Amino acid sequence: MSAEATIQVHVPTLPESEVEQVPMAPRTAAEGALRLGLIDNGKPRARELLQMLAEELGTRLPIASVELISKPSAANPISDEEAVGLASRVDLAVAGLGDCGACTACSVHDALLMERHGVPATVLITDVFVSTVARFSAVLGTPGYHSLVVPHPVAVKPAETLRRLAAGVADAAVTQLGAPSPAYAG
């Protein structure tokens, strides 16, 4: 008395589909002073590292002002309305800190929202999450999106180390943001 049995297997993945490509914001030499936007996701030491990066960028670019917005949670991207508002007030943007899977994905999303609204942006992450940026940026329509990478973990590093990390990625930030003249001696 053998009965045939059927096993049904469910694969928890989405089928391949076409993803609408998100164009990068134009990278052009800015006229005059630049306004830098920082999107702090609230992770430990993220604000401090972002502000140190802004200081480093100020030695390389004519940064006139820095606006920092702090998200209530690293687990959510900024809203489209917040992105539109920030995009109206800044010329360049850096989002971060991506030092876990969800917060990295949300920081990538934040940077791409700024790109979508015409503001050159980049995302600051730790080295453990480079592959997360690669996967998630492709899902969001910008495969190969760039990032500024520092060693993991950031939360336990002293301020002097954070300052060195900011200095170490500042030239890459200038390149990724497509900002004018790295020879600026402000």
What this model shows, in words?
With 186 residues, this protein is an alpha/beta fold. Helix content is 35%, strand content 17%. It has a 5-stranded parallel β-sheet. Helix 1 (46-58) crosses helix 5 (159-177) and helix 3 (101-116) packs across helix 4. The protein is globular, with a radius of gyration of 19 Å. Residues 180-186 have low confidence and may be disordered.
Helical residue percent band: 25-40%
Low-confidence segments, ≥5 residues, pLDDT <50? 180-186
The secondary structure category is alpha/beta
Characterize the biggest β-sheet: 5 strands, parallel
Tell me the overall shape.
Answer: globular
In what range is the share of β-strand residues?
15-25%
Q: How many H/I helical runs? A: 5
The number of distinct β-strands equals 5
Write the layout of secondary structure elements.
Blueprint: E1 34-40, H1 46-58, E2 63-70, H2 80-87, E3 92-98, H3 101-116, E4 121-126, H4 130-139, E5 148-150, H5 159-177
Parallel strand pairs: 1-2, 1-3, 3-4, 4-5
Helix pairs in contact: 1-5, 3-4
